[in-house]
Amino acid sequence: MAQRDGRGWFGRRSAPSSTTRSDRRLDSPKGMRTPFMRLSSGNDRMGRFSEAFARGMGTPWFLVGMSVFVTVWLVYNTVAPIDAQFDPRALNFTLLTLILSLQASYAAPMILLAQNRQDDRDRVQIEQDRQRAERNLADTEYLAREVVALRLAMKDVATKEFLRSELRALLDELDRRDDDNAAQAEAAAVDDLARNAREQ
């Protein structure tokens, strides 16, 4: 009976299940509220940490700091009294060797993780560059087709010389018509004068 109202056997309220907690997330679609998404988010956080770690190891300050640390360690455990040494020389600096081995065992996978993330970014960048190049090529081909179409259309357009020759011919035709009209008017006037003279 205690389980029906959400309480455990000892009267304590039971913790919500992982499904209920994941369904309450509002920053992702309902179908994607799964532990896998939380795991991938953790992987992304781990990837960012590995990149920061690899970036820090690739600086000269890390090399200088590591050199100073190892030098101080070796000098102290060599010069200090035997009772004060925590990694004695007689044991071939076992603790320092263990620390450096542990650092190397963690550094190598983190560097590989950082390289994998960089490879993924490079792959995305290459894909974007390829798509951009395809768009530029398509735009160039379109502009080339438009230029060819304009050139073909310009061949059908009348040039200045053609227009001038046509206008000149039209003016000559108009002048000729004016001369003909003037001659006809003079002839008609002469005929009228002759007719009037005969009538008188």
| Helical residues, percent | over 70%
* Tally of contiguous helical segments: 5
Query: How large, in whole angstroms, is the Cα Rg?
Result: 49 Å
In total, the number of domains comes to: 2
Query: How does the major sheet shape up?
Result: none
Intertermini distance: 148 Å
Shape: rod-shaped
User: Structural class from helices and strands?
Assistant: mainly alpha
Measured by DSSP, the beta-strand proportion falls in under 5%
Low-confidence stretches: 1-11, 14-23
In round numbers, the mean pLDDT is: 78
Q: List the helices and strands in order.
A: HHHHH
Number-wise, the strands total: 0
List the helices and strands and how they pair.
Elements: H1 18-23, H2 35-57, H3 60-79, H4 94-156, H5 160-199
Helix pairs in contact: 2-4
What does this structure look like?
The protein has 200 residues and is mostly helical. The chain folds into two domains: 51-157; 164-200. 76% of the residues lie in helices and 0% in strands. The chain is built from five helices and no strands. α2 packs across α4. The longest helix has 63 residues, at 94-156. It is rod-shaped. Mean pLDDT is 78; it is low at 1-11 and 14-23.
